[in-house]
Amino acid sequence: MKDKAEKLFELTDKGRFPPTMPNAPPKIQEMRNVLSDGYRDLRIKLFAEYYSEEQMDALLDFYESDLGRSILKAQGAIEEQFEKEMSEYVQKLNRGEDGGIGVVVEPKK
Questions:
Q1: 91: how many CB neighbours lie within 10 A of its CB?
Q2: CA 24 remoteness from chain centre
Q3: Which of 5, 56, 61, 106 has the smallest set of CB atoms within 10 Å of its CB?
Q4: What is the predicted pLDDT for the residue at 41?
């Protein structure tokens, strides 16, 4: 069952954790990697606990189909665009636009 949960994770969740941060300090990158591993392990554990084998098989069959792959591709594009637009929106709020209060965090010197 764990093998199927791992495969389901690889198909559906693998790219959902924030990408690597190549310009981040080593400690930050290390923490991101630890969090990414923990995210993966927890998702797989929960898939195995909450899905029956029959449900897991049905999900795998679906996500491995042409329709399933096209839906995963669309979901990935939606998530990527959402993160981009949300980041832009938060920046506007921080500048005091669109009803924001103009919070500006100064970098540490």
A1: 11
A2: 19
A3: 106
A4: 93
